[in-house]
Amino acid sequence: MLTTQFGGNTPRRLSTSEATREGINMGPTVVVPPKHLMAPSDASEIAAALETARHHVEEPVSPITPPTPHETTVTDKYAFAFDIDGVLIRGGRPIPEAVQAMKMLNGENEYGIKIPYIFLTNGGGKTEAERCVQLSKQLELEVSPGQFICGHTPMREMAEKYNTVLVVGGEGEKCRHVAEGYGFKDVVTPGDIIKDNQDTTPFRKLTPEEYKNSRSRNFAETKIEAIFVFADSRDWASDQQIILDLLMSKGGYLGTRSENFNEGPPVFFSHNDVVWSASHDLTRIGMGALRVSLEAMFKAVTGKELKTTAFGKPQIGTFEFATRLLQRWRKETHRIDSPPDTVYFVGDTPESDIRGTNEYNEHAQNSWYSILVCTGVYQAGTKPRFQPRATVDTVLDAVKHGIEREYKKTLRASLVQTGVISE
Ligand code: G3P
Ligand code: MG
Asked: Which of the residues in the chain have pLDDT under 70?
């Protein structure tokens, strides 16, 4: 197996307090987890940053994996990409096999190799850096924004296009801050709108804290140019009322009504998962369900069709984004300057993970190999709507499957080369 020597190119470290749009875009960057989770390090720049990072993540902690020796080699032949909810995490807790799967990728396998990997989740609601700090704790290893994409990550590319935008979803002010971090210049939230006119939502009143955090402005003079649903709505009724008001407005001015209902701003969703895998035994409705609901409601109220746009998996653009991220991660962290022959994508949702991987595989230059696990949305024994290349129980089985498959490919190639078997 062709390998490259690991080491030599130390990734830049980043804390949530230092994370900037540029920093997150540039990679490779390592989010610094709290000190008690860190392997011995010579980094001296961590002190203040660690405190900030610690405040962002409040789950209980467990010890981090000891560092793998530097002589471990890194394969340049293949890589892994992981979905998160239902594969690695469920309801904020790691799926039991996930920690061992990560260790296996980091060299604890019978071949003594490291395998590069990235994370590609439709989830969101916090900055990429903040989410990586949290994931680092959950999986007991360092996860960098340079190897992480969430549902709203590609939305940063829209920041130049629109001036004033409505950002919906997530906890408190978090998504406003994410959007501002992406470079959006003027971000309005549903809270701002309710603060300005509490009659907007007859059954929702702002809490004192929401009232304090919401910003006052004159909406009669505010043209909202686009609506971005960054994360799951915490209050469907009031969020949908506000989105509907804007969609029916004259050019994005609240309080106005269009005659033809054709003048409202565009709506973007960070993904389209109708259901997802949380802590409940059964799947829970997600952002895709809100999208369906909004489109149906618009039709019921106006008689017109509403066209909305979703980012995230299974969109090809998201997988192209992932390809670029993986390429940069492998180059800058592992000094590998060529694409992997195969990327193993491990997911639990046939409609997003398996569909996206299979469709991307059709026109990617390398092979994208879909593996479906049974720890999330997909239920063993049912027929998935999109067929994976392999179905396994857990993420650990998925990692073993990819490693074994690669081993067999290499073995076969060497037997062909030495004339033991023919092609
Ligand atoms: O809300 C997040 C969920 O819909 C899916 O996340 O990690 O399974 O892509 P993930
Ligand atoms: Mg999932």
From this structure: 1-71
Q: What is the spatial distance between Cα 132 and Cα 27, in angstroms, rounded to a whole number?
A: 13
Q: In whole angstroms, what is the distance from residue 38 CA to residue 32 CA?
A: 8
Is residue 148 classed as helix, strand or coil in its secondary structure? strand
| CB 170 less than 6 A from any atom of ligand 1 | no
Query: Cα(first)–Cα(last) distance of the chain, in Å?
Result: 18
At 278-287, the pLDDT tens digits run 999 999 999 9
Q: Note the pLDDT tens digit of each residue in 252-283.
A: 999 999 999 999 999 999 999 999 999 999 99
The pLDDT value recorded for residue 53 is: 31
Residue 406 CB less than 6 A away from ligand 1: no
Q: Which two tokens stand for residue 69?
A: 């020796």
Q: What is the DSSP string of 150-169?
A: -TTGGGGGGTTT-SEEEEE-
What pLDDT, on the 0 to 100 scale, is given for residue 328?
Answer: 95
Q: What number does the ligand 1 atom closest to the CA of 353 have?
A: 9
CA 349 to ligand 2 centroid distance, Å: 6
Helix or strand (DSSP H, E) at 27: none
Residues 182, 159: contact at Cβ < 8 Å? Answer: yes
Nearest CA to ligand 1 atom 2: 123
What pTM did the predictor assign?
0.83
Asked if residues 111 and 289 have their Cβ atoms less than 8 Å apart, the reply is no
Alpha carbon of 179 to ligand 1 centroid (Å)? 19
- E strand or H helix that includes residue 276: strand 275-276
Please give the torsion angle defined by the CA atoms of residues 141, 145, 148 and 152, in that order, rounded to the nearest 10 degrees: 140
Our answer on whether the CB atom of 233 is closer than 6 Å to any ligand 1 atom is: no
Residues 139 and 99 sit within 8 Å (Cβ to Cβ): yes
Write down the residue that tokens 């920041």 correspond to.
Answer: 159
Residue-level pLDDT at 5: 34
